[in-house]
Specification:
With 629 residues, the chain is α+β, with helices and mostly antiparallel strands. Helix content is 16%, strand content 36%. The protein is globular and about 105 Å long. The chain binds zinc ion. Zinc ion binds next to loops.
């Protein structure tokens, strides 16, 4: 049974004392209580809350060449006591970034020109409280709005770099001449030297400064970058010292040479060994750096932000090797070749993505900063909508049906198979695109100019560049005179045959034998071929330039490989591409069977799906993804 318990019933005779309340006194009492509680609370919060000093700086337009401005916003602060803090919260407009408590720096690209960005910083303590919020509104400049500047009278005297700096004034950019700092930076050793200046002349159009920066302490540095930091439009802007028309012979008879490009003026040490950056290619998932030397590149090194050597590997010149990007941890890395730094005064900021694995991938930015080449690696969980991992190309289509045998048309069979392969690759988390999903030329209905339409917008070659695909599989069926049978896998002369030989082995396990033409000079291994023509010292030399001795014979392999495979036709047929892109896909072309051979015809009809599955298995394993049935 439940006992009822009623508090007020137990003391029925308790006397009630009535007190008359003085309203004025009562109000004072309540207000005092609120004030005391407030003071205690505030004091308590002050005890648990502290202010973190945060430096906020915007770096000048990193994308001058492209015309679309890109700024880097940097926040940095003294290391927090990690025992006291849980995490750091940074917001940029509506985006919230959570950093570990041991972080001391945050960089983000701001790509909207002439726009306000509201940036806040809070460190969350263990318990309830945040540090005092730091809030700033940063306004980026309009496209191509830069500080016009030039230098003159450059000399080095008694270990000091001395020059005259001319800064043009404009209405849009207000320079606070009292806040200027000059810096000479040795990026490799992360040291900098601060300079002094005097204003020698100033009117409403221009300010002229005589600058003196001690560089004696930076003597071992292969390259020294020159920077200026100043308050502009009420926030700190860091920019490189520039002069579009600088006579690079201006500095004579010294240990240094002046080098001047879009990324600013750098001092190049004549005695310290280094390489000069010339070119790069992103091919498949790798980066190639083409440097201005005849020396062989044997090794490459990546040095992290704390200047620890984190990667030291053999540099393999195969297109699908070079600097391997897919497994790099997040961070900023200085690139070295043969253990020597690579310097440049070019403004580089190129973004590339590796393929999706387990829902994540590396976004890799090749950039130049303070004269050195960097790789910035960020782990992302999605890529831009128009970027794909792999392109599956059903051969032919539209007016061009390809091989016809019995009931079958190559264009339709290749489409059926390609859709199957694409679906199964998507099952493995890859972002897949088909060059066509209907019986049309990918460049559009009615277009099937075999020589040109692949290069038109949405054509099968153009799609590789449009969608930045890292890999491409072109699916075909063969015919001859009825006597030949079996499959052939074609890969590029600029790559090894890892992928193609895996595919050959896998197709064989699925029951299709290779047409293994042992006599063929193009045979690499069983069923795997590299069909090419000799380029150097041939009639092709004029057309292709022939950086390599041989060129891929199949246009779909050669022309989708960007600079590395020496594609050349995109610029001829598509005016949206004034130059050949410096990125390209690793492409293979597979001829599965001879449809005019009765045995191959029967086996294709019965087994095409398991052959498609064989391609999926070999491909995901090649990409380091676990195969799922
Ligand atoms: Zn074909």
């Amino acid at each position: 049974m439940k006992k009822r318990y009623r508090n007020y019933n137990y003391y029925p005779n308790k006397r009630r004392k009535r007190v008359k309340i003085n309203k004025v006194r009562f109000t004072i009492f309540i207000l005092s209580c609120v004030l005391i509680l407030g003071v205690i609370g505030f004091g308590f919060k002050m005890m648990l809350t502290d202010k973190v000093e945060v430096s906020v700086e915007l770096t000048e337009d990193l994308n001058k060449e492209e015309g679309e401005s890109l700024y880097e916003l940097s926040l940095w602060w003294e290391a927090l006591k990690i025992d006291d803090y849980k995490e750091i919260q940074i917001t940029v407009n509506d985006e919230v970034y959570i950093l570990d408590a041991d972080a001391t720096r945050f960089d983000i690209d701001l790509s909207n020109p002439d726009d306000d960005y509201t940036v806040t910083f809070k460190a969350k303590r263990k318990g309830l409280f945040f540090s005092k919020k730091v809030k700033e509104v940063i306004h980026t400049f309009a496209d191509n709005e830069t500080i016009e500047q030039s230098i003159s009278d450059v000399e080095i005297e008694e270990g000091n770099l001395i020059f005259t700096h001319h800064l043009q004034k404009s209405n849009a950019i207000k320079i606070d001449t009292k806040s200027i700092q000059y810096e000479a930076i040795d990026v490799m050793n992360q040291t900098l030297s601060e300079g002094k200046y005097t204003i020698t002349d100033e009117d409403k159009n221009e300010v002229v400064l005589r600058v003196e920066i001690p560089i004696e302490d930076l003597k071992g540095a292969p390259v020294v970058a020159l920077k200026m930091v100043t308050d502009i439009n009420n926030h700190q802007l860091s920019f490189s010292i520039q002069d579009k028309n600088l006579d690079t012979g201006a500095l004579k008879g010294e240990d240094y040479e002046l080098s001047s490009g879009l990324a600013g003026i750098i001092l190049v040490n004549k005695d310290a060994e280094h390489y000069t950056y010339k070119n790069h290619q992103f091919y498949a998932e790798s980066l190639h750096l083409n440097i201005g030397t005849n020396e062989e590149i044997l090794t490459y090194q990546l040095v992290d932000a704390a200047r620890n050597l984190t990667v030291d590997e053999a540099y393999l010149t195969d297109g699908n090797m070079a600097i391997k990007l897919a497994n790099l941890k997040e961070g900023d890395y200085v690139i070295k070749l043969n253990n020597l730094p690579v310097y440049t005064d070019e403004a580089l900021n190129e973004v590339w993505y590796c393929v999706m694995r387990n829902g994540a991938t590396n976004q890799v930015t090749l950039k130049s900063e303070n004269g050195l080449l960097y790789l910035k690696v960020q782990l992302v969980h999605e890529v831009p909508t128009d970027v794909y991992d792999i392109l599956i190309d059903p051969g032919h289509g539209g007016l061009d049906g390809g091989t016809i045998a019995g009931e079958l048309t190559e264009a339709n069979e290749a489409l059926k198979l390609s859709k199957y392969i694409a679906g199964r690759l998507e099952d493995h988390g890859l972002k897949v695109k088909l060059t066509r999903t209907e019986d049309v030329d990918p460049a559009g209905p009615g277009k099937s100019d075999y020589g040109k339409s692949p290069f038109y917008d949405e054509g099968r070659v153009e799609q590789v560049y449009r969608y930045q695909t890292k890999y491409m599989i072109s699916n075909h069926l063969n015919s001859f005179d009825g006597s030949l049978e079996g499959f052939e896998v074609y890969s590029s002369v600029v790559t090894d045959d890892d992928w193609s030989s895996r595919i050959a082995t896998s197709l064989k396990s699925a029951g299709q034998d290779p047409r293994d033409s042992i006599k063929s000079e193009f045979r690499i291994s069983e069923g795997s071929y590299k069909k090419c023509f000799v380029c150097r010292e041939s009639s092709y030399e004029e057309k292709y330039g022939c950086l390599n001795d041989t060129l891929d014979y199949l246009y779909i392999i050669r022309e989708t490989g960007g600079l590395l495979s020496q594609s050349s036709e995109l610029t001829q047929h598509n005016k949206n591409y004034p130059t050949i892109p410096d990125y390209g896909a690793e492409t293979i072309l597979i001829e599965y069977a001879y449809l005019d051979n009765s045995k191959d015809y029967r086996e294709w009809t019965a087994n095409w799906e398991s052959w498609g599955e064989a391609i999926v298995k070999a491909t995901v394993e090649y990409l380091g993804i676990k195969y799922k049935k």
